[in-house]
Amino acid sequence: MGRTPGFKTRPSRYSIGLAPTSRATCRACKRGVDKGELRIVTHAFVRPGRSHDFVCHAKCATYALVNKMVGVHGSVEKVPIEADSEACREARAELARVVGCVKQS
To answer: Which residues contact 101 (CB under 8 A, 6 or more apart)?
Structure first.
């Protein structure tokens, strides 16, 4: 009923990068993501041929979001970075530390 035969959902993919424009809004704090600001992008699969990107400030990332990133990519270190910049690598390292600290508590 309304489903495409053989339709299989795919897990969302994630990436860390710098915002190319200031048009996006953070899903967590509802504030704008300024151009050049560090962000996490959720590349969500909607249906075959259709996807949507959800944006979140790197500083607004929740444990649940980071945990989902680890579930898809295996570890925070394997999450792709959109721009090969020091800020992106530092954000990835910080997210890994946060996940490590929360798991130990």
So the answer is: none
Supply the pTM of this predicted model: 0.80
**Which tokens in the block code for residue 57?**
């400030």
Backbone angles phi, psi at 32, to 5 degrees: -70, 150
The β-bridge partners of 38 are: 18
Q: Which residues have C-beta within 8 Å of that of residue 79, sequence separation ≥ 6?
A: 14, 15, 16, 69, 73, 92, 95
Domain ranges (residues) in the chain = 13-104
Express each pLDDT in 25-59 by its tens digit: 999 999 999 999 999 999 998 888 888 999 999 99
Distances, alpha carbon 63 to alpha carbons 67, 68, 91, 102, in Å: 6, 9, 14, 8
Radius of gyration of the chain (CA): 15
Q: The tokens of 58 are what? A: 């790197």
Into which CATH architecture does domain 13-104 fall? 2-Layer Sandwich (3.30)
